[in-house]
Sequence to fold (173 residues):
Amino acid sequence: KPEVSDKLKKKKDIHVDQNKKEKSERYGFEKVEILNGNIGYIKLKYFADAGHAKKEVFAISDQMKNTNALILDLRGNLGGSGSMIQLLSGIFLNESETNILNIHYSNREVTMKSDLVTADHKYSEHPVMILCDDQTYSAGEALCLIFKNRGRAMLVGSTTAGAVVAAVVCTST
Fold:
């Protein structure tokens, strides 16, 4: 984009506008509510940078912590920042599950770790269901894979887009 190159030339922070946009969009959390039966529902349309979203994410996890179960809707999720995967994994997984994803590049391997999250922000005791579809991409797929491999969530929907390496197969609805 021309405006990005202009900002770089003027040595301006190119992330300011992105951070403002994400904040105005509640960092991708499109809908957060408690449904009948005390079931939490979160619609996440993309994974924002957790460094900026942490306060909002903790407010949402605190709102959900007394629900009986949670539905995390990742249908149509565009993907995004790995830092949000790490933060959400810290909230939803047990402390013992810190190594969450190994990424193999042609010249190196990276191990992604979950964030350390204090007990007051954890949601590791109640059931989680993730809704996914063929429009669930990248970071959304990675979170599905992490939670599925650990038995942390039931995945419901259709097979994801396949942008991670292989599509995550979900239970059909």
Summary: The chain has five helices and seven strands. The longest strand covers residues 29-35.
